[in-house]
């Protein structure tokens, strides 16, 4: 198992002693070449959040996603600033961070990617591969990061089987738009929800060469716009869940493995993001992120542009109340279906991305519209989000927030 072998690797290098501080890395998009994007580091220690680093011009204008590999950070620049000007922008930036997260440095030059990269995942033997989904570039790429300072492109796979749907949204659905790359629990497959095509694209991976081929597609309803997904292993079963951006729904499948590969079959359910029978949402509301808890017992999704909740300003309660979008929290049942458990505040507007800590006790949200990052406490036993521990104004379009737990050692 992939995760077990990773843990074994840590032990093999000697047990680190963990400091009590938790580090969170975030991305903020800027406006243009003279007002580029930045990365921030937030430290959570002794119940306090502190912005300890903010670094400009290290990942272009539109940093969208970070992948950690030891002290290296691979940062995608979505570069829709260039795209808006008619150029085909998009880059992979290699960075190194100090262990305390206070100093990031660029390693080498940015590598050009397919336009508009938005998500990446490590895969392959020893996780030496990096797969990237390009929202603007009709495809995915893979890189070899076995020399961490010098990623090499292995493959560029553009999608050629695309037919726009009737009444397709001109902004989002007139081309293939892979929005996420998700590694399955065996490491043999990558699933890319394609928001433009209303499909999950499933790639069969060669763990050694880091090449992959499209093995099959799984349809989602017309105009649904699948955005982000995750696998959950429940008992001996495997399930896959996706949040759709345009229809703001959750879809679940039972995944089976056979000699032929993996099979999603017909979906188990399609429900609104707030659960079956929930009230209609504002037409502006869009599904954003989907995360499974580390114990595979809970599924959390964010829905954005609802402005449905009012909470004390998490950056400073003295500043009064602010609007918030929700995180919707489900208990995963033994048969893979979902039971609504809680609707909780994300901490602000447009929770485009959020992550959960490895021990399940914390959730961090990137609130794009507010330029805010909020930290939420989570009860690992009940799965409930219990309290917003605090928030930091990092500014810009805040697009990503993740715990950097592997450098969190003394
Ligand atoms: C870049 O963006 C900033 C902030 O929005 C703006 O003030 C500035 O005029 C822009 N510069 C150019 C060259 O467009
Ligand atoms: C950050 O690290 C680089 C490379 O080691 C070094 O040159 C630079 O002075 C450091 N910057 C700060 C602010 O410590
Ligand atoms: C992406 O696909 C669309 C529709 O097939 C096509 O019009 C467009 O030129 C392609 N863009 C890129 C960057 O390949
Ligand atoms: C979890 O949250 C829900 C919704 O607020 C609440 O009804 C339930 O009692 C909570 N569970 C526990 C164990 O606190």
UniProtKB/TrEMBL annotation:
Organism domain of life: Eukaryota
Residues forming coiled coils: none
Gene3D superfamilies in the cross-refs: YVTN repeat-like/Quinoprotein amine dehydrogenase
GO molecular function per UniProt: 6-phosphogluconolactonase activity
InterPro entries: Cycloisomerase_2, Lactonase_7-beta_prop, WD40/YVTN_repeat-like_dom_sf
Family recorded in the similarity comment: Belongs to the cycloisomerase 2 family.
Protein name: Lactonase, 7-bladed beta-propeller-domain-containing protein
